[in-house]
Write a structure and sequence with these properties.
This protein has one helix and eleven strands, in the order E-E-E-E-E-E-E-E-H-E-E-E. The protein has 220 residues and is mainly beta. The strands form three sheets. It has a five-stranded antiparallel beta sheet, with no helix packed on it. Strand 1 and strand 2 form a beta hairpin.
Length: 220
């Protein structure tokens, strides 16, 4: 704990959750995990001599804790449209948007901690569910102080009905965080503090969309 001129600052966490409702070329979307593996992929004789990097893709069939959820890891999570006719190139993976946590932290407290019970969304950096109009928030406004053993709203309740995520209207709940270990330079204004995630178009355009900027019409 840092003490500074009548101010006491303990180690604590900041978390923010965003409901990301992506409709990729329509509402019939799916949730895909792309992992980068190292080894000798079966059925490829040309790659048997030495270990190599290769891609392994899987579409998550249904909701579930530790199934349609993720913490920061070396994988690429995408919301995709699996309709093959929408591909911009026949050899490309399905079009979609990748959700990539950039600078972020994960929840370190155990799941049964009162703070975590009241803010269950902090257990995951990403969770994907079916879209429902009634599911507007990742936590209840009545669970602000996080001291209840039986919170008003349990985030996992949106995952435990195991609804299909293939060709459906899906929602990504993205949680980013920061472990705040106070320092003297935080007084009187906190600096160098932030967290973020990226939404990357992935096989949506036939080339870098930044190349399609309009030319200047100003007179030379």
């Amino acid at each position: 704990m840092l003490r500074h001129a009548s101010v006491a600052a303990a180690l604590h966490s900041h978390f923010a959750s965003f409901k990301v409702d992506l409709d990729v070329m329509g509402e019939a979307n799916s949730f895909e995990k792309t992992s980068i593996k190292v080894g000798r992929p079966q059925g490829v004789p040309e790659l048997e001599a030495y270990p190599t990097k290769y891609v392994e893709r899987s579409v998550i069939a249904a909701e579930g804790v530790n199934v349609s959820t993720a913490r920061t890891e070396s994988a690429i999570w995408r919301i995709i449209n699996g309709n093959a006719s929408l591909k911009v190139h026949p050899d490309a993976a399905a079009p979609g948007y990748a959700i990539l946590p950039a600078l972020t932290a994960s929840q370190q407290l155990p799941h049964d901690h009162p703070m975590v019970r009241s803010a269950g969304f902090t257990r995951y950096n990403l969770a994907v569910t079916r879209h429902h109009d009634a599911e507007q928030r990742a936590a209840s406004v009545y669970d602000l102080f996080g001291q209840s053993a039986a919170p008003y709203f349990d985030f996992d309740s949106m995952l435990e009905d195991h609804e299909s995520l293939v060709g459906e209207d899906v929602v990504a709940w993205v949680t980013i965080g920061k472990e705040h270990l106070p320092r003297t330079e935080d007084v009187p204004l906190i600096t160098n503090f932030g967290s973020s995630f990226l939404l990357w178009p992935w096989n949506i355009f036939d080339r870098n969309a930044g190349m399609d900027m309009p030319r200047s019409t100003a007179a030379a």
